[in-house]
Amino acid sequence: MMNTTIHTLESAPEAAKPLLESSNKAFGMIPNLHGVMAESPELLKGYQTITQLFQSSDFSNEELTVVWQTINVYHQCHYCVPGHTAIAKSMKVDDAITARIREHAPLDDPKLQVLREVTEHILESRGHLSEELWARFSEVGYSDKHLLQIVLGISHKVMSNYTNSLYETPVDDAFKMFE
């Protein structure tokens, strides 16, 4: 584990303070991940920006959850799996979606299952997609735009998953019940 400070509003570099204030306003707290990222205000700003962009993509809350949790589970992120379980709950996403992803079990909804398989395949193949998976992805109603939005989601989660892996970010009390 690398050592770093989990910054507060008082300890953060000046450029990170408004970003942490934004986190506090959005979550009612400063998540530990944001406190760690604050050491590099550029990373925290990038993360917050990509979060907003991905959440404004064409994906529904269920689809956002499938992409996020597929990546989190693939990267074995001890912090983001419970964090996004809590987020999914707040977004009124069926608990079974997150549970099945965490258990490596197939999803009941065929469209969500294809989304999950494509996301995982892109991770495993480092950006390559088989013709067969592309055909299945298209057949269930996804487009090139959706495929590129998965890339955006992967970029988002790489920032957090890798940070959490490097620094073993402690899970916030608000997310502990979802570990």
Topology (SSEs and partners):
Elements: H1 17-27, H2 32-37, H3 41-55, H4 61-74, H5 80-90, H6 95-102, H7 110-125, H8 131-139, H9 144-167, H10 173-176
Q: What does this protein look like?
A:
By secondary structure, the chain is an all-alpha fold. The chain is 66% helix and 0% strand. The protein has helices at 17-27, 32-37, 41-55, 61-74, 80-90, 95-102, 110-125, 131-139, 144-167, 173-176. The radius of gyration is 16 Å and the shape is globular.
**Which regions contain 5 or more consecutive residues with pLDDT less than 50?**
none
Number of strands: 0
Provide the β-strand percentage band: under 5%
Helix and strand composition category: mainly alpha
Distance between the termini: 20 Å
Give the H and E element order. Answer: HHHHHHHHHH
Mean pLDDT: 95
Summarize, please.
This protein has 179 residues and is mainly α.
Key terms:
mainly alpha, 179 residues
